[in-house]
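Backbone-to-sequence.
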């Protein structure tokens, strides 16, 4: 009996060590193809000029103000593109962002810009509710959603709209990145979005896996209209995932822009970064429950710890030495990828990168268990309770921001 128990224990240990080993090989493959894709894709020459550029309606959902709000909004008015309109959407009539909106409209009177105040309630998603009047009024066949915190590069539309010359392309999206902002929190965001996040995002894009992030993307309007319009996506919290899923189900392709989406929030800190990572993890788990298992198998610290045990169990290697080597290897790869995404010298020291990288990687456990422990998310001034499938109930429709 004791021999049988020992045999079963050994078989269990063998199986438990095999899973992280397989995951490690997959992650190394992901590192490799993301580096190749970043090298080839980012900051590549713009799409050759078209004889007739397609018109683009830019939806700009706005809320509140921060020190960079005016700068971010003004970049949309300065785009180098022949045919576009800016549709700014504000939920509340007393929102202070309205002053910035009117200032931009007065400064750039030649830009086709309109303001919509009040929104339209079509579901629990406040962003969709806010954008509804602008979406309804859009006059072009391509819709771009550009979040308030995005600092838009002057050539963004030329880098994105040209891909729609291929009728099979339904969505063109930008990989999230961040502008350089002073302080440790600013460095932390750049290191994460250009490092470990870019690994997963670029590898998924190259393998044809739905990875579209809704902070900056363009889609064909007629496809969404055939499904009931933007209103039909108001029942989900992560409307971007379900919009892109609809295009995948239609057999259409999604294309990645050569320019990333530059996040440029004026109010940022380590705490707000961590809170956002918890919220994103909660959303992934609610939409795709298997991420409960996949998240630890894709993160540097947890995957390294599991494989350190595996090499000790099978090969009697020193687990601490293996873990330290693993951290160094992944850090160097992320540093290389970050340089490719940045497209030039990094705006901070290697020491700053190292500290930010270590903090983010070891922050994962707090993010992961924080997401599991709490089914509620706070989204701006609303509090929602998530359910499996990406839906949610409103707990508090208005709380102090």
């Amino acid at each position: 009996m004791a021999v049988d128990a020992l045999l079963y224990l050994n078989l269990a240990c063998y199986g438990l060590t095999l899973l992280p080993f397989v995951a490690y090989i997959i992650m190394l493959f992901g590192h490799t193809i993301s580096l190749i894709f970043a090298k080839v894709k980012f900051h590549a020459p713009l799409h050759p000029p078209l004889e007739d550029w397609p018109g683009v309606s830019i939806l700009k959902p706005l809320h509140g103000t921060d020190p960079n709000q005016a700068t971010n909004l003004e970049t949309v008015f300065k785009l180098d593109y022949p045919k576009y309109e800016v549709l700014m959407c504000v939920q509340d009539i007393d929102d202070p962002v309205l002053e910035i909106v009117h200032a931009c409209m007065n400064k750039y009177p030649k830009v086709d810009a309109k303001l919509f105040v009040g929104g339209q309630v079509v579901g629990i998603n406040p962003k969709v509710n806010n954008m509804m009047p602008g979406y309804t009024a859009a006059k072009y066949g391509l819709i771009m959603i550009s979040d308030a915190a995005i600092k838009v590069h002057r050539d963004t539309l030329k880098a994105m709209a040209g891909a729609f010359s291929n009728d099979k392309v339904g969505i063109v999206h930008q990989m999230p990145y961040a502008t350089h902002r002073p302080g440790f929190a600013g460095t932390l965001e750049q290191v994460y979005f250009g490092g470990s996040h870019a690994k997963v995002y670029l590898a998924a894009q190259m393998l044809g896996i739905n990875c579209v992030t809704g902070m900056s993307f363009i889609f064909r309007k007629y496809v969404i209209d055939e499904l009931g319009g933007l209103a039909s996506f108001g029942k989900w919290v992560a409307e971007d995932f379900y919009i892109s899923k609809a295009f995948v189900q239609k057999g259409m392709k999604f294309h990645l822009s050569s320019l990333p989406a530059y996040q440029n929030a004026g109010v940022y800190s380590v705490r707000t970064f961590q809170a956002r990572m918890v919220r994103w993890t909660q959303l992934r788990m609610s939409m795709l429950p298997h991420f409960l298992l996949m998240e630890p198998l894709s993160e540097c610290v947890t995957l390294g710890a599991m494989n350190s045990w595996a090499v000790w169990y099978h090969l009697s290697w020193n687990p601490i030495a293996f873990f330290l080597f693993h951290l160094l290897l992944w850090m160097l790869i992320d540093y290389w990828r970050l340089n490719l995404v940045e497209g030039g010298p990094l705006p901070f020291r290697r020491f700053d990168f190292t500290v930010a990288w270590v903090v983010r990687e070891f922050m994962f456990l707090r993010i992961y268990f924080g997401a599991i422990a709490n089914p509620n998310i706070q989204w701006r001034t609303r509090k929602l309770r998530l359910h499996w499938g990406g839906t949610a109930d409103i707990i508090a429709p208005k709380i102090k921001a």
